[in-house]
Design a protein that fits this description.
By secondary structure, the protein is of the alpha/beta class. The chain is built from eight helices and 13 strands. It has helices at about 5-10, 40-45, 130-140, 155-180, 190-200, 205-215, 220-235, 330-345, and strands spanning about 25-30, 50, 70-75, 95, 120, 145, 150, 260, 265-270, 275-280, 290-295, 300-305, 305-310. The strands form three sheets. It has a seven-stranded mixed sheet, covered by helices on one side. A four-stranded antiparallel sheet has the order 8-13-12-11, with no helix packed on it. A hairpin with a 2-residue loop joins β12 (about 300-305) and β13 (about 305-310). The chain starts with 6 loop residues before the first helix and ends with a helix.
Length: about 350
């Protein structure tokens, strides 16, 4: 089951703030295999620090209303594009370490974040491109630190001299890559049911051994698929148990059967005028869970859905059975009928 950012999870992670969300300033939601950023702009408008590292998030979204957000931690996710942060006016630090951002030109979407001083893009494909650092520190003059290294005044001057040529090359690379199909393997599809079916077809031990011994591609889709597979290995789907078939109280010919489903101890005591059945039930059982039926040749006691049914050797004189000892169901039905009759007269 995919973990969503819902009100229940947020309250759980807001224990340090007595579960209060409207005034929450910091929340940690790492290592939940979350796939989508949601509801933070609904319940936590005053967030200043947000930890979302080591999840399965593929897109930066639903954060524009967090005007007070200063630090956004999104390392170790499946993000392929820097976007939708224009509304985070107070953002000072953004960590996208080890994601899948390929295009260095994406950083231009952060030009409006004037308070941004610290940016991390280590471990992304874009950080491996020649001229990456020079381009970023020139495109974002508000930065003081990039990938954990201070930006010096000399470095900024030298980078500015190379900026135009580097940007032109990045634009050409972008146009060339857009003409190639399947570049980067960045398409992430919702294949949850297919994964579940695959897990069901393969022995769990064999699947786990396969993950431990086989190298897989480091792509967003492969990472997401692996996380879903491992989640199913840890928590395999449980088939619902069939509803229990109630034990028959009669034979096919209609003869009553002796039943003691609760395995209760019972005994009869007799006097010259009465016969009493004693059934030893739990001391604390609620009377609403009890029902007793007495007929001429049998007695049925139902407690918490379990039945004690006894066939009498000698038929009882039902005309002498007191009202308090007859079926409680019948008694309640008679009471309801009396109430209806009174209402109809009114």
């Amino acid at each position: 089951m995919v973990q969503r950012i819902d009100k229940e999870l947020l309250r759980k992670r807001a224990e340090h703030n007595d579960g209060e969300l409207s005034s929450l300033r910091e929340v940690t939601l790492h290592q939940y295999d979350i796939e989508k950023i949601e509801n933070l702009d609904v319940y936590c408008r005053h967030l200043e620090i947000l930890f979302l590292q080591n999840n399965q998030i593929a897109k930066i979204e639903n954060l524009n209303k967090l005007k007070e957000l200063k630090y956004l931690q999104l390392a170790l996710n499946n993000i392929t594009k820097i976007e939708n942060l224009e509304g985070c006016e107070a953002l000072e630090k953004l960590d996208l370490t080890v994601n899948f951002v390929e295009d260095p030109l994406d950083v231009e979407s952060l030009k409006g974040n004037e308070e941004l001083k610290d940016l991390y893009l280590l471990g992304n494909p874009c950080a491996k491109k020649e001229g990456y650092r020079e381009y970023v520190i020139t495109a974002l003059p508000q930065l003081k630190m990039l990938d954990g290294r201070d930006i010096t005044r000399t470095e900024r001057i030298e980078a500015a001299q190379l900026y135009d040529d580097i940007r032109l090359r990045f634009l050409q690379d972008k146009e060339a890559s857009s003409d190639q199909l399947g570049t980067g393997d960045v398409t992430i599809t919702d294949n949850g049911p297919d994964v579940a079916e695959a897990i069901g077809d393969v022995d769990a031990a064999a699947k786990r051994h396969n993950y431990q011994t086989t190298t897989t591609a480091h792509t967003p889709s492969a990472r997401l698929s692996a996380a879903r597979d491992l989640a199913l290995l840890k928590n395999p789907p449980v088939e619902p148990k069939p509803a229990p078939i109630p034990a028959p109280l009669f034979t096919a010919s209609g003869r009553l059967l002796q039943k003691n489903q609760g395995k209760w101890t019972y005994n009869f005591t007799s006097s010259s005028s009465t016969t009493t059945l004693h059934v030893h039930l739990s001391k604390f059982i609620d009377t609403s869970l009890l029902d007793v039926e007495v007929e001429r040749d049998w007695i049925r006691v139902t407690a918490k859905g379990k039945v004690l049914q006894l066939v009498l050797e000698e038929p009882s004189a039902t005309s002498k059975i007191s009202e308090g000892k007859r079926s409680k169901k019948k008694k309640r039905q008679n009471e309801r009928d009396e109430v209806r009759q009174k209402k109809s007269k009114l």
